[in-house]
Amino acid sequence: MRRISRITVAGAATASLALALSACGGTSTEASSESKGGGGTKGLAIAYDVGGKGDQSFNDAAFAGLEKAKKEFGYDTQDVEPTEGETDADKEQRLVSLAKQGYNPVVGVGYAYAAAVKGAAEKFPNTTFGIVDDSTVESKNVADLVFSEEEASYLAGVAAAKNTKTNTVGFVGGVDIPLIHKFQAGFEQGVKDTDPKVKVLSQYLTQTAEEGGFASPDKGKSAAEGQIEKKADVVYAAAGLSGQGVIEAAAANKVWAIGVDSDQYSQAALAKYKDSILTSAMKDVAKAVYTLAKSVKDGKPATGIVRGDLKTGQVSLSNSNPKFADNAEVQEAIKTAKEKIISGEIKVKSS
């Protein structure tokens, strides 16, 4: 996740224009959309989580889904950046502005949008809203796009246990919240089930997102360095932009990093570190966002809890690094674990 203060000029200008239109009644198109409770036909709009576009991880995955929908359906899209220190009311106004402009669906990227999505959905009952990584919003026009992150993290734990030479691995969580506990729980279980002798060092960067746990590469780097000093030779980060600092520390110390959310081995911004990225525990936010947009375009909007897991293929491990993909022993162990999770033989903990 990129630093919150780095707001693109275009994004800021768009948001400002939208707010201005809202204040003065908006255009005739917006007024029509509002009077009908939303339900416009402009296409997909997304509002980013803390850090915004350019995090090479969570937000960028959502943007990839938007780009696919834009290319395939040929309609207008918009993506809007967060602002530093914003409130739930600010988030709701952002979503309301997008709905008033005729965008449908409108997606809040991240659990922090829960209150905002709930409020906006009540005001625009004919617009479909989506929220990524939250299952608490119960509304007839809201899709809760959630994932079984613990399952991919379990496989990451298998990979870590199979690749450690020091019998010590590390987990770095961005913020100490239930969502990230899922990553930790799955990873630790995967490690221990694979080799009980392997020690897992776990650490959270901050207690709240406002403290920068998802947006501070320096914090991630420092945490990883501390674990590496304690002999960790594989470090898994579930920390958004902060994870880039973990990857940097791993590369500098010639140990393995495991990425998250997107295939970080293939990210251009991380190219100089890619030889140190063993694999990534991915969740297909892009597919979830795209599929929601398609459901609206097809006239059958998805609502309620929409879950991606190993069975649906929406969580997985990346195989981009040849050293990982070509390791037959590791691949066999991961394949076996995956089959057992899908069949229910292995019950992966989420806390």
What does it look like?
The chain contains twelve helices and twelve strands. The protein has helices at residues 9-23, 28-35, 58-73, 88-100, 114-123, 149-163, 178-194, 217-229, 242-252, 285-297, 322-325, 328-343, and strands spanning 43-47, 78-80, 103-109, 129-132, 142-147, 168-175, 199-206, 234-238, 256-261, 277-283, 304-308, 315-317. The strands form two sheets. It has a six-stranded parallel beta sheet, sandwiched between helices. A six-stranded mixed beta sheet has the order 7-6-8-9-10-12, sandwiched between helices. Strand 8, helix 9 and strand 9 (256-261) form a beta-alpha-beta unit. Helix 1 packs across helix 4, helix 6 (149-163) runs parallel beside helix 7 and helix 6 (149-163) runs antiparallel to helix 12 (328-343).
